[in-house]
Amino acid sequence: MNDLVAQYLEIWNTTDAAARSAAIARVFTEEPGYVDPLMAVTGRAALDAGIAAVQAQFPDMVFRLAGPVDGHHDQVRFTWELGPADGPALVVGFDVAVLEEGRIAQVYGFLDKVPAAA
Hints:
It contains three helices and seven strands, in the order ααββαβββββ. It has helices spanning 2-13, 17-27, 44-57, and strands at residues 28-36, 39-42, 61-65, 70-72, 75-84, 91-100, 103-113. Strands 1, 2, 3, 4, 5, 6 and 7 form a seven-stranded mixed beta sheet that branches. It is globular, with a radius of gyration of 13 Å.
């Protein structure tokens, strides 16, 4: 599950559209779901568009693992952070991913720290 989470976070950091789409096809099931407080999408194309929108909102920021990966059966949870590569996190959250046959079928995301509104 550690490798799958690493691949998942790498997708969020991949800005090349073709490479990101190919990675989503490898890591996710045919019709994945993703929901967090700011986005709810179904399908690979919608997920890809959502990730691209987050990248546009937070340019030059990177997602990174922020603690151990904890999993059992066909589910995994992990804390992540988003910030400059060499600086403190601006956003912190955790995701729970549900797997089907070794691929991500559903992600439930939660936000623990978000930037204050201007």
